[in-house]
Structures are given as C-alpha cells and as structure tokens.
C-alpha cells in the first residue's frame, strides 16, 4: 500500500511538472512568434523603403504622367454644366454662349429622359423614344435675369400642374443626390448657407395635348430672382388683407 502511494505521488508530481512546462513552452513560443513577426514586418518595410529610394525618379515620373493624362482626358472630353451669368454677352463670346446653352439643354434633356419613366404612371404622360421628342421650339427662354430651358412632355391624361412640378422636382433631386446625372458633381448650390438643388423645375404649363416644362440651373442670379418673386407675392398677399372695423361686427 505504501509503495502504491509513493508511485501515485510520483506520477502526480510528474503530471504537474509537465503542465507547468507546457505553459512555459507556450509563453516562450508566443514571445518567439511576436519577435519573428516584428522582424518580418521590419524587413518588409525596409525592402519597400529601399525600393522607393532606388526608384524614386520613376515613381515621381509615373505620378506626373498620370496627372497629365487625367487632366488631358478632362480637357478633351468636358461634360460639365455651365452656370451662365446674368449678362453672358459681356463675359463670353456668342459662340461660347451658344455652346454653353446647348450643353446645358442636352444635359437637362438627358436628366428628364432618365426620370420620366418612373413618373409615367402617376403623371400619365407619354414616354419619349428619343431625346428630340422633348425638344421645344423655343429651347432657351430668358425670363428677367435668368435663363430657362424649355421642354415638351406629351400627355395621355391630365394631372395638376402643381403636382407635376413637385413630383418632377423630387425625382430630379433624388437623382442628383445619387449622382445619376452625368456632368454634375455637386448636387446642391449653397445660397446664404442654404443648400438648394442645382436643377429646379421653374414652371409647368398645361398646353392641352402636352405640358411645357421649364427647368433652370441654380446660380446666384436665380436665387435672387426667386427670393424677389417670393417677397413680391408675400407683399401682394399682405395688401389684399384689410383690418376689420366696427361695422363688420354690427
């Protein structure tokens, strides 16, 4: 019995010693792995730095060539919206004004082509097969100090022009926010700290068989014009009010 106890105690001590040794080996292995990892990353970083130093000229040359190519592509294929000033004749040549108007008109026409299919069920309109079907006989209209771009949308049935205007404006603004309108990178124009959607539905007119839709590209002049118009309407509404008199309650 005594021999058994001695044998059991020896086995127990060997097991505990083995467990302690295993923990020590794990710790040592972890430290070795960390050290090797640091050495590996240091070696890789040193190789990268060494490569950059040895090939610095080629790297700088490649970056410069890439920048030149990007700039060249933007110059050769310009697709940008033009915010025309109040009196463009004083700032641009007639040919430049004409080209800017045409660019804007085509861009806004493409924007309409993209949004009208989604609005067709609610606005009850005919979908155009080609962009030219939206073109108006008077594509550019100067109203006061702003330039409007006029389009024709044929209809199947009638809806409220105010409803048409609101629905179209919301769909255009959503496409602006999603970056779906080619040529426009910034969807908003900031006026006195307030963001305004760059494309505005200025007016919608029911012409019987079709709607006449006027769009505008927002700039400083447009914002001032709309503020003036709003103030004029408020003033006109105020002049229509009369203070009650005693006779009104007699």
Describe the structure.
- This protein is α+β, with helices and mostly antiparallel strands and 250 residues long.
- The chain contains five helices and six strands.
- It has helices spanning 2-54, 56-76, 94-123, 161-177, 220-239; strands at residues 135-143, 146-154, 188-191, 194-197, 199-206, 210-217.
- The strands form two sheets. The chain has a four-stranded antiparallel beta sheet. It has a two-stranded antiparallel sheet with strand order 3-4.
- Strand 3 and strand 4 form a beta hairpin.
- Helix 3 crosses helix 4 (161-177).
- Mean pLDDT is 80; it is low at 85-90.
Task: Tag the structure with descriptive keywords.
single chain, 250 residues, alpha+beta, four-stranded antiparallel β-sheet, two-stranded antiparallel sheet, 6 strands, 56% helix, 17% strand, elongated
Structural shape: elongated
User: Which structural category do the helix and sheet elements fall into?
Assistant: alpha+beta
- Give the spatial strand order of the biggest sheet: 1-2-6-5
Task: Summarize model confidence as the mean pLDDT.
Answer: 80
What low-confidence regions span 5 or more consecutive residues with pLDDT below 50?
85-90
> Between the first and last Cα atoms, what is the distance in angstroms?
125 Å
Number of helices: 5
Radius of gyration: 36 Å
Profile the largest sheet. 4 strands, antiparallel
Task: Give the SSE order as H and E letters.
Answer: HHHEEHEEEEH
Proportion of beta-strand residues = 15-25%
| DSSP summary, beta strand count | 6
Q: What share of residues is helical?
A: 55-70%
